[in-house]
Specification:
The chain is mainly α and 234 residues long. The chain is built from ten helices and two strands; from the N terminus they run αββααααααααα. The protein has a two-stranded antiparallel sheet. The longest helix has 23 residues. Pfam families: RGS (PF00615). It comes from Drymodes brunneopygia.
Length: 234
């Protein structure tokens, strides 16, 4: 029998006579490079593509649902025509108010109509005790600086409103509500009347799908630096 050291020079025979065994030297085993290192270009492209698709699907869920003009499919062309007669007429009908609210959401300016609705509810308060908590909520939500749904008011209107919050009256928000009303009437309302969903209602069709508006992505360009965008999914 040939000496195993001659056949496998990389193996060392233990000098111990009691427990003979073979030791594999470190030089005989080459460790594979760690495969969990930096991702390759193909992996980065896949990640970019999946992130983009996830974001677009999310946006589509928000704007592509049948609720762009909720209940609008049952609105007759005759009713839709009345909405175009005046802004007052649009807001006075529940279906019209709902349709306009959905339209503002596609423009990310729904705080205006929400403030107007809150003011309408505030004026319907049945007692003076109801006014103070409602006034504080409206002020903190829509009017004070950096409010979560701050509406666009001039300095004078904001100051006058702020001064009456401590002892609010039913007329406390009248000036601010009128300002926001005019803003919607002169700016958002004309665009609503030109929008595809509204024009579809006039023609007796179901509400058209609103155009997709992209928001900022949740990742940065640095995440994929040096990788040429490729939107093909493997």
């Amino acid at each position: 029998m040939e000496n195993p050291l001659l056949l496998f020079p990389q193996l060392n025979v233990s000098a111990s006579k009691d427990k003979p065994y073979y030791k594999v030297t470190k030089s005989a085993v080459k460790e594979e490079p760690h495969k969990a290192g930096k991702p390759g270009a193909k992996q980065k492209r896949n990640r970019l593509s999946l992130l983009l698709q996830k974001s677009e699907f999310h946006e589509g869920d928000q704007l592509g649902k049948p609720g762009i003009l909720t209940k609008a499919a049952s609105v007759s062309p005759e009713e839709a025509v009345k909405w175009g007669e005046s802004f007052d007429k649009l807001l006075s009908e529940k279906a019209g108010l709902d349709a306009f609210t959905k339209f503002l959401k596609t423009e990310f300016s729904e705080e205006n109509i929400e403030f107007w609705i809150a003011c309408e509810d505030y004026k319907k308060s049945k007692s003076a005790q109801e006014l103070l908590p409602k006034a504080k909520t409206i002020f903190e939500t829509f009017i004070q600086k950096d409010a979560p749904k701050e509406v666009n008011l001039d300095f004078h209107t904001k100051e006058v409103t702020s001064q009456s919050i401590g002892q609010p009256l039913r007329s406390t928000f009248d000036a601010a509500q009128s300002t926001v009303y005019r803003l919607m009437e002169q700016d958002s309302y004309p665009r609503f009347l030109r929008s595809a969903p509204y024009l579809s209602l006039l023609q007796g069709r179901g509400p058209a799908r609103a155009a997709l508006r992209r928001r900022s992505r949740s990742f940065t360009v640095n995440d994929f630096q040096g990788v040429r965008p490729d939107f093909t999914v493997w």
